[in-house]
Batch of 4 targets.
Target 1
Amino acid sequence: MQFSDALQRDITETVRFALAEDIGSGDITAQLIPADHTANARIITRENAVICGVNWVNEVFQQIDNSITVTWHIADGDYVTANSVLFELSGPARALLTGERTALNFLQLLSGTATICKHYSDLVAHTDVRLLDTRKTIPGLRTAQKYAVTCGGCHNHRIGLYDAFLIKENHIAACGGIAAAILAARDIAPLKPVEVEVENLTELDIALEGNADIIMLDNFSLEDMREGVTRTAGRAKLEASGNVSTQTLAAIAETGVDFISIGALTKHAQAIDLSMRFV
């Protein structure tokens, strides 16, 4: 996902909501500190990570108090080692403390997403496969996590239900078959990509006859994936899905499929341990 005006608008709204749920009627603990007290703070990572979330952090402190100065020592997508200083803050002490948790929540989650994506992408760097995320994201943070995926070296599948067809088992059953579902999709939105999930080689042949743009091989064996690549011969893009792990990933990539979709890129992300200290 490219950083864009639309993404910045999403950041502004997401941060506004996050601050509202945290601050509520006011940060009563910060009121212990004199209103005119200023401070400097330093944020470090306690572990190795690929960092993502710079613009979310900036937006948090901009919305709280635009007199705060944020000085970054890294950029989105940078790999850092434990105890590295990520950025420094300067401004009213109350405001720094009020924004701390929300800012670090965004940074630790998005960096965790980018870090796991980097780990997966490194495992298939010797192939031409593209690793794709899914819609298994934290509600309200879809675009944020999908941006983090790209910072970690992986790629975005469809963003939501509106930008591409993904015809799965239940859609096929309701439409009366794979061919009928593809025809209906072409009629509804002729310019949208059409992807179909298939469960065996016979269904693959039907999807190819129907001229699907992308065909998802759901829980195929490695042998059937290789056969599917041979049968397809470039007539459609092939996406492997199901039972993908760090142990199976390289072997799947080596079958010659074009894409591998992995829900774990977003739903299994573990937040990076970060710390803010006044200096």
Note: The mean pLDDT is 97.
Target 2
Amino acid sequence: MWEYTEKTKDHFLNPRNVGVINDPDGIGEVGSLACGDALKLTFKLDEQRKQIADAKFQTFGCASAIASSSALTEMLKGLTLEEAAKITNEDIADYLGGLPKEKMHCSVMGRDALEKAITYYRGGSEKKIEGEIVCECFGVTDLEIKRAVTENGLKTVEEVTDYVKAGGGCGKCHENIQAIIDQQIGGIQILPRMKKKELTNIQKIKLIEETLTREIQPALAKDGGDIELIDVDGDKVTVKLRGTCATCSKSQITLKNYVETKLRELVSDSLEVQEVN
């Protein structure tokens, strides 16, 4: 579904420095399996404690997460801690020749893991969560959103989701995210998302059918998959996956993280998608 550069493909298919360094000088862990992305970064300094001699990673995530982590470990070798601390998520993406905007959160995850690893080496305690949780689905705070907006010039809720995942779940935090964006970029007027009005069952079914046809089926078709609407009972949407999606080991992730999220975004945030038995 995503357009990757040749360098990104290479780092995904042939990742460098996979594993964990024994007795590391720095350890940084970010993300969680519940959110779909997790990264552990370790590094070792040379004998003079001047430069990073080695760096390794373990990650659970998509192709971009693997490629970003691999790239970061390659970037770190030979750098002093002061130089390493200046690496940004944009530097990681640029090293790979760019990442799809929907996958920029993978480079942010790498940057965050590096910051934690350096803090670990310097003897600092891991920072407690600061600010207020805005996105309950992914545990993202207002300060994390503000940082992403400021550093990357983000202007929409969708862009914030691409960088830090906030807003990528149930969608209830979209108005709060938009308010943070407006505040950070100096009050530039961006229209907030309209609240969805109550739909009749016929209207709901029609919108679901349109969303499947216009948004979801074309995306699945890129990987040889398809989806068929079977039934709508209140907020329960029953579908059947076809093509490669029907036999894919990650079909349930596709249903929940993509199909259900898209239907909640464009139809009703109370919808639940299930596959026909």
Note: Residues 116 and 262 are 33 Å apart (CA to CA).
Target 3
Amino acid sequence: MLQLGPVDGLIETFGPFALPVLLFAAGFVGYLVLVALGRTGRDGD
């Protein structure tokens, strides 16, 4: 079995769908940060 460290416990608790959901959530937060940075840069002009 693949050893993923702390992610291994997460997968055992929530099942194999936890990893894609976690990646989606991280990507969504990153997108929101980029949008927020883009808006602040535009307002400064």
Note: The mean pLDDT is 81.
Target 4
Amino acid sequence: MNSIFKIIELFKVFLLEIGELSYFAGRFFKEAFKRPSEFKEFLRQCFYMGNRSLLLVAVTGFIIGLVFTLQSRPTLQEFGAVSWMPSMVSISLIREIGPIITALICAGRIGSGIGAELGSMRVTEQIDAMEVSGTNPFKYLVVTRILATTFMLPILVFFGDAIAIFGSFLVENIKGNVSFLLYYNQVFDALEFGDLIPATIKTFFFGFAIGLVGCFKGYNCKKGTAGVGLAANSAVVFTSMLLFIIDFIAVFVTDIFYDL
């Protein structure tokens, strides 16, 4: 019986968390269209998030391209289909692997950073001081960060995909002596707008989810300094779960439109 009550209690906490997150998202949309726009802070956050994550995304994308090609090549060789490698790698990376892997990396890098930063500001009462001084902390701290993650993640995904395809080319060039021009001609011949548009659209939702959850956990941080670490940790876990849910919905909706 105790275990049943614990499950019910956890379910109640989960539903309460979802409700508070929804209210937080509604407040974001309400504040996002109000003046002043805090455009300078938005640009600063874009630079901070994009510049700090660029190297990590590049290294990860390069390794993904290398490993994916090295693992797939022997199987394709068995069927005499090595010539399909550029098409398979490009479609797989652009449609699914690139966006979700980059989003998960940014969830750990950016989401945890936002949660820890805003959590420490809440614990040290800096947010309360901003409210007393007449500044809108939600507009300055939350709206700018969510917008920055929403617009920067698609750029990071494009960059990561390009590096991953280049890593795949290096393997093909070494193993199969494929030229740069031939490889990239096959890559772009295989890709269609139907591959690029859905993958691009869902990256905006990925970025929005990363910024929203990170800001939500940090802005509502409690329990003193111990809560800062908890906010950063829970931001990454909650965001990762949300990214997979969004990805499933995006793939499901895309599949419906493809069947029509």
Note: The helical segments are 2-32, 39-78, 85-123, 126-132, 137-176, 180-190, 193-219, 224-259.
